[in-house]
Amino acid sequence: MTQSLVAAQTAHTSPVTGWWREAVIYQVYPRSFADANGDGMGDLPGITSRLPYLRDLGVDAVWLSPFYSSPQADAGYDVADYRVVDPMFGTLDDAVVLIGEAHRLGLRILVDLVPNHCSDQHQWFQQALREGPGSRLRERFHFRDGLGEDGELPPNDWESVFGGPAWTRTKNPDGTPGQWYLHLFAPQQPDFNWEHPAVRDEFGSILRFWLDLGADGFRIDVAHGLVKADGLPDLGDHERMRLLGNDAGPCFDQDGVHEIYRHWHTIFAEYADERIGVAEAWAPTLERTANYVRPDELHQAFNFQYLATAWQAEPLRDVIEGTLNAMRPVGAPATWVLSNHDVTRHATRFANPPGLGTQIREPGDRELGLRRARAASLLMLALPGSAYIYQGEELGLPDVTDLPDEVRQDPAYFRGAGQDGFRDGCRVPIPWTTEGTSYGFGTGGSWLPQPDTWGELSVEAQTGAPGSTLEMYRSALALRRRHPALGGADNLRWLPSPDGVLIFERTTGGGPTFICTVNVTGDPVTVDTPGTPLMASAHITVGNARTVLPADSTVWWTTA
């Protein structure tokens, strides 16, 4: 073990703070953040070089999408070895250096964990294929005989989230047609059988491996999918497989999954400095989502219901109230998120009419989308709990909706009736400079083509520019830390407001009151001036008694 590995195991001594209850967590998609070696693909040294930017932005933690050894059939969510860094991204030493530098700068690191499935190149799966039916390693996955006279039909009617059957047939070692295996996603991603003790033991070991190297916790991919209904019954009348928008069916959100997270909670508790688990749990209701963050399970769960809510006053108020009401009984913080690597960026979603879903191929009205995105971001950062920022949203980046079909790499794009397949548009490498090869992403181009206008939205172009989206985020995050009523406290109270406007206040311990006004309409609206303005997503003129809120705007106020 190298010296840097040893240092990482002893350098993490953060005090107990409950940091995760109000943290702002920044998602880095390693392929698209920063490229240090000039090969056109982002990497871990590139991320390390840009950590000061994230510290200065004002976030508390960084979540890294997968960088494990992988054939990259699904951009690293097909893991061949959970303890090895893919050479595309660097080395294990690079990961340890990144973690250590983040801690030196006061940032925490969350590692993406993919426990529902692995790569078909994982050594367990490869050995199971070599050994054929009857292999004990096949028990660690879901291998089944097919239906029909010759086993030519899949074992049940489950469909892949990416489209097509959720089953692929194997060949026996002698070349004859063999059993089928389950994959809720791409065929290169066989699902683990979490009823098998070896699977549970292996992931306990993987958790400790990264925690020992200093990771502050994990974002848990498809956290709701690990346990399937007994006997793998047919979907029957259930809606086609999707991650969000249908009931759980036999594939997702089974009660048995919570036993796994109760065990993981005991592993996190072995470490004295608050390591955490964050569930990517696409549960059908907020109440079901809350089950993942009961006191003896995980610490946070993504709020996808909020992400999927239209820019309309009543639905927004309903989902905010519903979230707080669902989390309160289990004592968990609410989380808020607008964009990530799987959905169209909110600057583009809000540029289009509501009801089109979370993956959109139309650019919409760019000016409208940016105006709403800025307002939505200030609303999100004003809410109680923890917030997630997806890389580039602080620059107001839109989705790249006009990528040529031949450059797309989303596996769902190539499978009929899949999960839309347009995720590449939010994964285009972000711009750092106004000019140069790949706008400062690296010196060797970009794995996905960047728009000609990317430089105008770059970090360089927006730094110090009055009114820029980047400076708005920097100011908002700084105010969020300073104002005593903001952060994790469950202290939101709605105030009377005109139609199409949300107004709420947050108070704490006799200090100044924070007030947020949000106009989600396309027209200016006049309201009583509630205090002294702190910041706004659009230019406002404050009157002594009445203030006009611009269309699609959010304003922060304080009473002191």
Automatic annotation (TrEMBL):
InterPro entries in the record: GH (IPR017853), GH13_cat_dom (IPR006047), O16G_dom_2 (IPR045857)
Superkingdom classification of source: Bacteria
One biological process term in Gene Ontology: oligosaccharide catabolic process
Keywords: Glycoprotein
SMART domains: Aamy
GO molecular-function terms, A-Z: alpha-amylase activity
CDD domains: AmyAc_OligoGlu_TS (cd11332)
Pfam name, any one: Alpha-amylase
The Glycosyl hydrolase family 13 catalytic domain, residue ranges: 27-423
Coiled coil: none
Keyword Heme: no
Family classification: Belongs to the glycosyl hydrolase 13 family.
Name of the featured protein: Alpha-glucosidase
